[in-house]
Specification:
2 domains; Alpha-lytic protease prodomain-like; mainly alpha; three-stranded mixed β-sheet
Length: about 300
C-alpha cells in the first residue's frame, strides 16, 4: 500500500477508538457512580485516558506522514515513537491514579457493595474493548506503526482492567466487598506494566535499536539474489516510525566497473523496496569481493 493509504488506515482505526472510548467512558462512569463501584469508576478513568491517547496518536500520524524536507531529510517518522512514549506516560498516570483511589478506599472510606449495573458495565466493557484491541492491533501490525500498536495495547489494558473489575464486583456482591478496592490495586499494577512495555519499545526505536534478525536475514537474501552481488558483508537497519531505513555493504567482483557497480546497487535497492513495502530507503556501499577494511576506530566507516 502507498504512504497515503497507510496513514489513512491508521487515522481511521484511531477515530473508531475515539468514539468507542467516549461511549464507554460515559457508560462506565455512570455505572460506577450508580452502582457504587470503586473498580468501575477507576475503569471509567482508564477509558477516558484512552481518548486522550487517541488524540495523541492522531496528531502524531498527521505529522509523521509529512514529506521529507530540508530540516528532516529522513522524514518525520520518529514522531510516532515520541508519541508512543507520551501514550505510555498517560497509561502510567492512570495506573497511579487507580492505585491511589483504591488505597484511599481501603484505608479510610466505607466500602459499599456494588450494584448490578456495575457488573453489566464490566461485561460490556470487556467485550467491546477486546474487539477494539483486536481491530487496532491488526492494523498496527499491518502498518508497522509503533504508536498505533501502543494504542492497541492501551485498549487491551482497558479490557484487562475490566476483567479484574468484574472479579472484584462479583466478589463484593457475594459478601466480600473488600475485593472491589483490592482489585483496583491489581488493575493499577497491570496498567503500569503495560505502560512500561510501551515506553521501553518506543525508547528502543528512538535509540535506533536493530529490528528483528528475521527481517535482516530477509533483506540479505533479497540482496544476494541480485546478479553480480557476491556477498552482503554488513547490514544495518533502524525504524523510522512505520518504515525501515537500511544500510548495506555489498561485495562484487573486483573487476567490476564503477558504472556496473552502481547498476548492481540500484538493482539491489529496487529488489528490496519492491518486496518490502515498509522499507523507505536503502543506502548501499559497494566493495570488491574479498576486501578487508583496515582497522578503524569505532564510529568510522570504510
Amino acid at each position: 500500500m502507498d504512504k497515503e493509504e497507510r496513514f489513512h488506515k491508521g487515522e481511521k482505526v484511531t477515530w473508531v477508538g475515539i468514539w468507542v472510548n467516549l461511549a464507554l467512558t460515559i457508560f462506565k462512569a455512570l455505572a460506577g457512580i450508580l452502582g457504587r463501584s470503586q473498580a468501575m469508576t477507576a475503569d471509567a478513568a482508564h477509558s477516558f485516558s484512552d481518548i486522550c491517547s487517541d488524540v495523541v496518536v492522531l496528531v502524531s500520524l498527521k505529522i509523521a506522514k509529512r514529506p521529507v524536507d530540508e530540516r528532516h531529510p529522513y522524514g518525520h517518522g520518529k514522531i510516532e515513537a515520541i508519541a508512543a512514549v507520551v501514550v505510555g506516560g498517560m497509561v502510567a498516570l492512570v495506573g497511579l491514579t487507580i492505585l491511589w483511589m483504591a488505597v484511599q478506599t481501603i484505608l479510610g472510606r466505607t466500602i459499599r457493595t456494588p450494584g448490578v449495573i456495575a457488573l453489566v458495565a464490566a461485561l460490556i466493557s470487556i467485550l467491546v474493548k477486546e474487539a477494539l484491541f483486536q481491530y487496532t492491533v491488526r492494523i498496527g501490525k499491518r502498518l508497522g506503526s509503533p504508536v498505533v500498536m501502543a494504542n492497541a495495547w492501551h485498549h487491551r489494558s482497558d479490557a484487562f482492567s475490566s476483567v479484574v473489575a468484574l472479579v472484584g464486583i462479583t466478589g463484593a456482591r457475594i459478601g466480600y466487598p473488600i475485593l472491589d478496592p483490592l482489585t483496583g490495586v491489581a488493575v493499577s499494577l497491570f496498567v503500569m506494566k503495560v505502560a512500561y512495555d510501551i515506553v521501553l519499545g518506543a525508547f528502543h526505536q528512538l535509540m535506533d535499536t536493530s529490528p528483528d534478525e528475521r527481517i535482516l536475514k530477509g533483506i540479505t537474501r533479497l540482496a544476494e539474489k541480485v546478479e553480480g552481488v557476491e556477498h552482503v558483508h554488513e547490514i544495518k537497519a533502524r525504524r523510522m516510525g512505520q518504515y525501515l531505513l537500511v544500510d548495506l555493504k555489498l561485495e562484487v567482483d573486483p573487476d567490476t566497473s564503477v558504472a556496473m557497480g552502481h547498476a548492481i546497487a540500484s538493482e539491489v535497492k529496487h529488489e528490496i523496496m519492491k518486496n518490502m513495502s515498509d522499507v523507505a530507503d536503502v543506502m548501499i556501499h559497494v566493495n570488491p569481493h574479498g576486501y578487508h577494511p583496515p582497522h578503524r576506530h569505532p564510529g568510522t566507516t570504510d
